[in-house]
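Protocol step 4 of 5: obtain the predicted structure for the target chain.
Materials: sequence only (see below). No template structures provided, no constraints applied. The aim of this step is simply to have a reference model before the mutagenesis design in step 5. Sequence pasted as it appears in the construct record:
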Amino acid sequence: MAQATVDVTLDRLAGFREVFPQAPGVMADASLVDEGMIAARTLLTDADGALHADRPTAIVAQSDLLAVGVIRAAEELGLRVPEDLTVVGFDGIAADGLGSLKLTTIAQPAVAKGRAAGEQVTRMLAGEPGSPCTSPVYSAKGRPPLRCRMKKIARLRQLASTSLRSRLCFCSSPCS
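Step 4 output (structure tokens):
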């Protein structure tokens, strides 16, 4: 897999690798639907566009936009989601273009993260020193505290035991 550079991408990949150390992965150029389609075709087909005999039965995408692209590519290849291919995204955004399908996603607490950042900025603008974030949302370094990352890892393990089958892949992007 190409080098990821954004902390959130690295954290998600690390959590995935902790649970599924041998799973293959591909790096998309950006967190876009079209890039998800390209990544899915790379994971699912050979050079001639035929489905791999040992294709993945599940793909965890680093973002919901990549996951939408994976679903679209799977449908173009004649695969049914979730019957033939399980797809999981990250972020919990409203994803358009899926018809009747609902995206399985690991949601981010965007409002709570924004509130914590706003409170910190307000304190600093008032001349008060910044203080370590004690919220379970984000730590002082800007990364989720270990207990939050562990909840995500536990969720991946739960998904693996209930809906992900034998072959799993990770689709990531360096810019998300």
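Step 4 remarks: Residues 115 and 121 are 10 Å apart (CA to CA). Residues 146-162 form the longest helix (17 residues).
Proceed to step 5.
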